[in-house]
Amino acid sequence: MRVLGIDFGDSKIGLAIGESDANLATPFVVIKNNEYTLELLKKYVKDEDIEKIVIGIPYGDNYEITDQAEKVQKF
Prior knowledge:
Layout (H helix, E strand, L loop, with lengths): L1 E7 L3 E8 L4 E9 L4 H11 L4 E4 L11 H8 L1
Parallel strand pairs: 1-4
Antiparallel strand pairs: 1-2, 2-3
C-alpha cells in the first residue's frame, strides 16, 4: 500500500511517500501552505496512487495539545 506522510507547517508542508510492505518512507516534496495546498495534495494522491494518508501531530512534552497540534487537527 502506498502511503503519503504529511508534516504540516504554517508556511510549508513536507510530504513523504512510503510503501507499507517495506516499512520505509522517503522524502517526496515540500510545498507551500497556501490556498492551492489541498488541490495540489489531491493531485499527488491521484498521480502517485496513494491509498492512505498519515499526518504527524506535534504533541507537547506531556502529550498535551499544542497550538501547532490544533492547527494540524483543523487542517
